[in-house]
Design brief:
The structure holds three protein chains of three kinds. Chain A is α/β, with parallel strands linked by helices. Chain A has 19 helices and 19 strands. In chain A, helix 16 links the parallel strand 18 and strand 19. In chain A, helix 9 packs across helix 11 and helix 9 packs across helix 15. Chain B is an alpha/beta fold. In chain B, helix 5 packs across helix 6, helix 13 runs antiparallel to helix 17 and helix 14 packs antiparallel against helix 15. Chain C is built from seven helices and four strands. The chains are: A alpha/beta, B alpha/beta, C alpha+beta. Chains in contact: A-B, A-C, B-C. The interface between B and C is large, with 50 and 36 residues.
């Protein structure tokens, strides 16, 4: 242990703790920009420099390790001067268009300016950084002019996701983060997962804005707007509107969407249950008929694009079941539209997701026909929050409203889709009972839960020992797929989610660190355990009704046509 | 004035690529001594007082101790042959003329710390040196001075050459390591230091060419012999590079403690064309620009520091009366703006802004307030930059303003 | 590096050139540390540049992501994104050469070649660039043309130096 004095406060911390972390314990919050608690230390922005007795120069608090007896001063005239001058340098190379910027009031650079009360004149003329806006991707918008060269985005893309799409280019004043040869994002191997957006402290990388299209449809008298809301949204949206992470606000969410003018608000949990029915059936079919195993989930579009790009030879492993969003799109356009006497083109299928890759998924040619897509527009949690605010809604004061029938009822198994391990557990809750014919006493499969890393478990289902594997984050996915490709993946069923932690860690959510994701995770399982009378997909009466109305069993005929899809070989994308 | 040829004794006398010829004049005797008593090597180097010759002046023995004391399955000896500091040519001479001196120094370092692999990081601008080094390495291997079972011992040591590709910042030790690892040459924050976590995370000795070339002679002639040369805190000799407005530019070896005046007048021959000396930049592009009042400063680390000059890698650039100081500062800031790696804010942004401000003075539009801004920004860069490049790049400008403030304020093509 | 005077050169799209580069890179598959060495060897046969096509081939052969190669190629001064001339003339811009008349020497080169610094002659023969210290300060002002050092030079020497390459 080391005793360290920071601004006069003595704290005791483990040896090797950084000054930044030790300071937090002392009640000293040193400003930082390139530091992110979930990433490796970078030490490049230099905003966190402090005076350490015995050191000739100022040292970066984020990187410098404490030692016993160290005395640190974070706020001397010398440290302040450096901090203000560094901030000034950053601001001189950053557009001063905060009032027009999507991250106004939600920006780490602004926060530092505010915390430091930086109001003095900037002594240097503004220069624009990089080569200009990139709107090519349906999910991610790039604005190199706003880059502060913190390197958090390329770290996320390289280390969390192993996609390596972003790099620093040039050196010195001309340095910025970009794609190879400034290729438009849409032409790269980017999986559209949006982890780079989550990493960016400013608006250099942002969510592609689809709220204009959404509002246009909502205000169009000739369109019936039918919305679906993903499981993860209900534990994220309140946070996006200023409440604590992990606040559950399902009822208020539906109320807000109705107030905005959306005609029908359905619950994607319903089609999450549907996915379990279809995928569970598919799994059993492959298991008993020597089909391609391991079966790998396909509801994460970032993961699907990753598989198509890097492992196109392994696509047979992917479940042919569409994602819950994809299924719901088909339900809305091909089933529900008829029910309310509209043509598919008169129904606007809007989806609210924690995910930026869903915007890419919605545009896939397989998920549409006859000149229309099953999902017309995807807005993420961040965008929905913007829409709610701009609709003059005070979210904190809203009453609860139920989702609309007939697609407003989802089981607890559907809700947990939002967390890593959720799809696997949901599948097991159903598959187990179908195979054994017996009611499960304990439907909690805690061994597949967990936020980080890869988990594996063996579940005994009747006579079978089913080996399963769950992972999230594409770097982990790559490790699993290397095993699959080598024939060494000793599992029957694998759940892969592109985003670390699952959808609750998705690119479209409020900016976060692991502590927030953990809270969202906990909230997800609380909804499942305490707020869902039905916790297994096959027991969802709405699901039972639906199949009855369709007149088929899962996987058959019309169910297959509407709820299954195919994939494309994208091995040629530049990597 | 007679040079004191300690390292450069055999320059021009030997076939550079022949290890045999080198051995004939006493080469590899130091390595033999080291192999006979590996655990005594570091103490000898410590006793000699040898300090790094690349510009930082860090005590070599101490540096090697960190590496020796860190447990690892692999350690490395890296020779910094990037020599990017404007005004420095000494390493080029040593490598082109007596490469075996370098190989021997690296091998002895390997013996001392337990490293079996060495890398010479050679700047791309010395392709003709690379040819010589490759041939010399081949010959040294054939004669068993490198490779497996060096000189018949249990010790293996081999050296590989790695190229730079045009980046002054790769002369910074951690940026150099990044470059060998095949990445952008961006320095790492320290701690951890390369001695503990260096090349590919392993304990690494990084030394300048000249530093390593001193090692064999120290082992052969003994620490006491070396310690008796030069000044008390900068023992030994130094290869001084004289350049700029000087009659006899070149590399000259003397014991440390020789004065700047002696180097300027007796060795350099003064300014060409009868011009008067106006200023001297000491220790490279990031060294202070001082006036002629400093000419009697002794060339040692301690004396230079006391006088507000900089010993650096022992290079002196002489500036005559025709050279405008503002124009020179513009050139220096252009250099740093070009060479900044771009990783940390103060250096990436600051060098560009300092250049912008210097250009105002060149245009004649610079003001007193601009001078204040320069000093303010300079102090932050010197205090908060991640590596020596940003920490030192404002120094020439700040010192030039101190000595030649009138030239800045009078503007024009000074 | 802007190249308004660019001539039409398609070395990097020539499959034979790319095959040669693949062969240079192939022995170093998985050896990220050899990237700079490979690029230095590949660049001269691809029009003295590392454009997208070259990065693609090296990426494939060495199993290194393309963006990584781009980041390295745009960091070091010796690599160029755009194709350059057959002979690269690099004029030292650093202080020791500057105080000995590098500026007038550069002017002389520009005049003799008929191009501004940073550009390539129309016939594709020469690219004129500045670089930083070449380490030959005793021969200031100095120039490197490919791997050869020339210096000290005066404007009068320029034509003679270039004649060797014309």
């Amino acid at each position: 242990m080391a005793k360290v004095t920071i601004d006069g406060i003595v704290v005791e911390v483990e040896n090797g703790t950084t000054v930044l972390k030790a300071a937090e314990k002392a009640g000293v919050k040193i400003p930082r920009l390139c530091y992110h608690p979930d990433q490796d230390v970078k030490g490049n922005c230099r905003i966190c420099v402090v005076e350490i007795e015995g050191q000739r120069l100022l040292q970066p608090a984020c990187a410098y390790p404490v030692s016993d007896g160290m005395v640190v001063h974070t706020n001397t005239a010398r440290a302040r001067k450096a901090r203000y001058n560094i901030l000034e340098l950053i601001l001189a190379h950053h557009p001063a268009d905060c009032l027009h910027c999507i991250r106004n009031h939600n920006c780490e650079l602004q926060q530092i300016v505010e915390d430091m009360s930086f109001t003095r004149e900037i002594r240097y003329p503004y220069h624009e950084r990089g080569t200009g806006l990139d709107y090519s991707s349906p999910s991610i918008t790039r604005d190199p002019a706003k880059c502060i060269v913190c390197d958090r985005c390329s770290w996320a893309c390289t280390h969390f996701q192993s996609c390596n799409v972003l790099t620093k280019t040039n050196r010195g004043f001309e340095t910025y983060l970009t794609t190879e040869y400034d290729r438009p994002m849409a032409e790269t191997a980017c999986t559209t997962c949006g982890q780079c957006i989550q990493a960016c402290p400013v608006a250099a990388l942002t969510i592609h804005d689809d709220t204009t299209d959404a509002w246009k449809a909502i205000n169009d008298k000739n369109l019936t707007v039918v919305a679906q809301v993903a499981p993860a949204v209900r534990v994220n949206i309140a946070e996006a509107l200023g409440e604590d992470p992990g606040t559950i606000s399902t009822g208020r969410l539906v109320t807000a969407m109705k107030m905005m003018g959306i005609d029908y608000v359905f619950d994607t949990d319903f089609t999450a249950d549907l996915t379990i029915m279809e995928e569970g059936t598919e799994f059993l079919h492959r298991l008993t008929n020597g089909g391609c195993l391991p079966l790998i989930t396909s509801c994460s579009p970032g993961w699907v694009k990753f598989c198509e790009t890097w492992y196109p030879d392994q696509l047979a492993h992917l479940s042919t079941a569409k994602s819950p969003q994809g299924m719901f799109g088909a339900v809305i356009k091909e089933y529900f539209a008829k029910k309310i006497g509209k043509r598919p083109q008169e129904v606007f299928s809007l989806s609210v997701m924690p995910c930026t890759a869903k915007k890419y998924e919605a545009k896939r040619p397989e998920l549409g026909r006859d000149g229309y897509q099953d999902v017309d527009c995807v807005v993420t949690v961040q965008e929905l929050a913007q829409m709610i605010r701009s609709a003059n809604i005070d979210f904190s004061k809203l009453p609860d409203t139920m989702f609309d029938a007939p697609f407003g009822l989802g089981s607890g198994a559907g809700v947990i889709f939002g967390a890593s391990g959720g799809v696997m557990e949901a599948a097991l809750r159903t598959v187990h009972e179908i195979v054994t014919g017996k009611v499960l006493e304990d439907i909690d499969f805690k061994q597949v839960r967990g936020l980080r890393d890869t988990r594996e478990a063996t579940i005994t289902i009747g006579d079978l020992d089913v080996k399963v594997c769950i992972t999230s984050g594409l770097a982990n996915a790559r490790m699993i797929m290397d095993l699959v490709r080598a024939g060494k993946a000793d599992y029957q069923f694998i759940e892969i989610m592109a985003c670390p932690g699952g959808c609750i860690g998705g690119g479209g959510n409020p900016y976060r660190d692991w502590t927030k994701v953990e809270k969202r995770n906990a909230a997800t399982y609380i909804i499942d355990a305490e707020q869902c009378p039905i916790r297994q997909s096959h027991k969802n009466p709405a699901i039972q009704e639906f199949y009855k109305d369709l007149g088929v069993k899962p996987g058959e005929e019309i169910a297959h046509k509407l709820f299954h899809t195919n994939y494309a070989d994208r091995g040629n994308l530049p990597k | 004035m007679e040079e004191y040829k300690f390292l450069t004794y055999n320059v021009g006398k030997l076939n550079p690529v022949s290890a045999t010829e080198y051995a004939t004049v006493g080469g590899y005797a130091g390595l033999k001594i080291a192999l006979a008593n590996p655990s005594a090597v570091i103490q000898t180097i410590k006793d000699s007082g040898l300090r790094g010759r690349g510009g930082a002046g860090f005590p070599t023995g101490m540096k090697w101790t960190f590496v020796r004391n860190t447990e690892a399955d692999q350690k490395y000896i890296v020779c910094n042959a990037d020599e990017g500091e404007p005004g420095t040519n000494k390493d080029r001479i040593l490598m082109a003329e007596v490469p075996n001196l370098l190989f021997e120094g690296m091998a002895i370092a390997g013996v001392a710390v337990g490293a079996t692999k060495g890398y010479i990081y050679l700047r791309a601008e010395y392709p003709y040196v690379k040819e010589i080094l490759l041939k010399a390495l081949d010959d040294a291997r054939i004669r068993h001075f490198l490779g497996k079972n060096v000189m018949g011992s249990d010790f293996d040591f081999d050296i590989e050459i790695r190229s730079g590709a045009g980046a002054y910042v790769c002369g910074e030790e951690t940026a150099l390591l990044e470059s060998i690892e095949g990445k952008r040459g961006e320095p790492r924050y320290k701690p951890p230091f390369p001695g503990v976590q260096g090349l590919w995370g392993k304990p690494t000795v990084i030394n300048n060419v000249e530093t390593l070339c001193n090692i064999p002679m120290i082992l052969c002639m003994g620490a006491d012999f070396f310690k008796a040369l030069g000044t008390p805190q900068t023992t030994g000799t130094k290869l001084f590079t004289l350049c700029g407005n000087i009659k006899n530019p070149g590399v000259y070896e003397f014991q440390t403690g020789i004065t700047m005046r002696e180097l300027f007048e007796d060795v350099g021959g003064g300014c060409p064309n009868g011009k008067k000396l106006k200023a001297i930049q000491c220790g490279g592009a990031s060294g202070p620009i001082v006036g002629t009042d400093k000419l009697d400063t002794k060339m040692s680390i301690e004396d230079c520091n006391a006088a507000g000059a900089n010993f650096g890698a022992g290079d002196l650039m002489f500036i005559d009366e025709d050279q405008g100081i503002v124009d020179l500062c513009e050139n220096l800031m252009e250099f740093f703006e070009e060479e900044s790696c771009g990783k940390c804010t103060p250096c990436r942004e600051g060098n560009f802004r300092l250049l912008e401000l210097v250009r105002k003075f060149k245009d004649g539009t610079g003001t007193e307030t601009d001078l204040d801004t320069i000093e303010d920004l300079a102090s932050t860069m010197m205090d908060a930059s991640l590596c020596g490049l940003g920490q030192a790049s404002p120094i020439p400008l700040v010192s030039a303003i101190k000595y030649f403030r009138n030239e800045f304020l009078e503007g024009g093509n000074y | 590096m802007a190249n308004d005077y660019s001539y039409c050169c398609t070395k990097a799209s020539d499959p034979l050139v790319l095959a040669k580069i693949a062969a240079i890179a192939a022995p170093y598959r998985g050896r990220e540390d050899m990237l700079i060495e490979v690029l230095r060897e590949a660049q001269p046969i691809a029009g003295n540049a590392v454009p997208e096509e070259v990065a693609a081939v090296v990426s494939e052969a060495m199993d290194i992501p393309r963006p990584k190669i781009y980041g390295v190629a745009t960091f070091y001064a010796m690599f160029s994104k755009e194709e350059r001339g057959e002979h690269i003339i690099r004029m030292c811009h650093s202080a020791p050469c500057h105080v000995r008349g590098a500026k007038v020497l550069l002017d002389a080169f520009e005049k003799e070649l008929g191009i501004p610094c940073g550009h390539t002659t129309l016939d594709g023969r020469f690219t004129l660039e500045t670089c930083e210290c070449l380490g030959v300060c005793d021969r200031a002002p100095a120039v490197m043309i490919d791997d050869e050092v020339y210096g000290p030079l005066t404007p009068a020497d320029v034509k003679g130096v270039l004649a060797k390459y014309r």
